[in-house]
Amino acid sequence: MKALLGILAFFFFLVVLILLLTGSYIYKVFRNIKKAARQAAEQQEQRYREETGRQRSQYSQRAQKPYEANGTNETNEPHKTTTTTGETIIDHRHQERENKKIFDDSDGEYVEFEEV
């Protein structure tokens, strides 16, 4: 009877030990996932701050000197385009600004919204 009780106690402590080790491993994994998610959110927030700061400085410089070309006092020639419907589009942007992509590839696809 004592031998059986000893074997049961041994298996009980073995199961408790396995549960504790498994629980601590799962806890560490969840903690690492939470840490990685927090770091990714901080990086995204930092990129957003850098981008908006760049835009603010870009637009504040443009407001101060709207037609300066590359730090000189030369004015940009406006680029005029006439559409097939007869509308004239006048573009005062610098050539490098004119051809710059507005959206990143990661922004997704533009879908025109139609109200039903």
Q: Can you describe what's shown?
A:
This protein is an alpha+beta fold and 116 residues long. The protein has helices at 2-64, 95-98; strands at 68-69, 72-75, 79-82, 88-91. The strands form two sheets. Strands 1-2 form a two-stranded antiparallel sheet. A two-stranded antiparallel sheet has the order 3-4. The longest helix has 63 residues, at 2-64. It starts with a helix and ends in an 18-residue tail after the last helix.
The biggest beta sheet reads: 2 strands, antiparallel
- Contiguous uncertain segments of 5+ residues: 66-74
- Cα radius of gyration in angstroms: 32 Å
**Element order: H for helix, E for strand:** HEEEEH
Amino- and carboxy-terminal Cα gap:
80 Å
The helix/strand class is alpha+beta
Helix content: 55-70%
Could you give the count of β-strands? 4
- Strand order across the biggest sheet? 1-2
Sheet-strand content, in percent, reads 5-15%
Oligomeric status:
single chain
Mean pLDDT: 78
Total count of helical runs of at least 4 residues: 2
Shape: rod-shaped
Detail the topology: elements first, then pairings.
Layout: H1 2-64, E1 68-69, E2 72-75, E3 79-82, E4 88-91, H2 95-98
What descriptive keywords fit this protein?
alpha+beta; two-stranded antiparallel ribbon
Structure described in brief:
The protein is α+β, with helices and mostly antiparallel strands and 116 residues long. The protein has helices at residues 2-64, 95-98, and strands at 68-69, 72-75, 79-82, 88-91.
